[in-house]
Description:
Blueprint: H1 2-7, H2 34-46, E1 59-68, H3 70-75, E2 86-93, E3 112-118, E4 124-130, H4 140-151, H5 162-169, H6 171-177, E5 182-183, E6 191-192, E7 197-200, E8 206-215, E9 221-222, H7 224-228, H8 234-245, E10 248-256, E11 276-287, H9 291-297, E12 309-311, H10 315-331
Antiparallel strand pairs: 1-2, 1-11, 2-3, 3-4, 5-9, 6-8, 7-8, 7-12, 8-10, 10-11
Helix pairs in contact: 2-4, 2-10, 4-5
Amino acid sequence: MRLLAARNLAVMSVACLGAQMLGDPAARAQDKPVPEQIVDVMNRLWGQHPGMRANHAKGVVVEGSFAPSPDGAALSASPLFAGGPVPVTVRFSDATGIPTIADGSPQANPHGMAVKFKLSDGGEMDIVANSLKFFPVATGEEFRDMLQAAAESGPGAPKPTRLEQFVAAHPAALKAVQSVQTPASLARETYNGIDAFVFVSRDGKRQPFRFRIDPDEGAEHLDAEAAAAKQPDFLMKEIAERVSSRPVVFHLKAQLAQAGDPTSDPTKPWPEDRRIVELGRITLTRPAPDSATAEKSLLFLPQNLTAGVEQSDDPLIDARNAAYAVSFGRRQ
């Protein structure tokens, strides 16, 4: 069981692909920027699929609105919390760069929820969240190394495999992947902003926090047998049908750090007793008219923030932002 979980680390169904997929020396060129190395490895693990993301390739786009709460305006000077409802575009997704992955596959975990808020002043803000409770690694370099280790740990690899060695040296990795299950619906999943950000209030007070998006109907998950019995596209079809028939509501929240809580390491969750504030309600009401076209043009970036919301000292934010930009450029 531990070996299976290790091979499913975060976004990887790669053990069966074998070490030969990284045999091209150019793919491992260490003189490239780390984000580009990450995308290179993903493209070799899961193939290059024109117009598709290097990771979280399979997805669906829906639309709705966000209504802020008074608590958000008290914490942050962001225009997101200062007025009335604003439009949102949301993309739900499966993990891996395989656009045909079955929604119920263990490797489709963690599922993602990316939100683009369209502000009244013409600006935008993005949140890129997923169902992991915390991230397997702390830096872009470690994420690259984890992908490479998984790819070199296929059938017949000498024991201990590279992945087993990596997991032994990075205990958060196995714990992270064990924190996710297949949801019964994409509307019945909790999505976490694994990186720390900082609210800045109108009077200059700074408050580190992490985003959390809770489903109004509560989270519900399937065991492995039930998930495997589902149709390959059951999650994507169900969410489109659900928002077509009735509003789907999520609660955007912030977990507030206390003094001493680490903000630079996404592998370390904060204690559950930390204060959680509701920032507002995301209400999804319709599928995008053309989801495939919308997916290709959409770019969600963790650093796409507004005044009143700032980046913390978490180094993974820069790595994610740059890797998403590399992937976006390639799929255009």
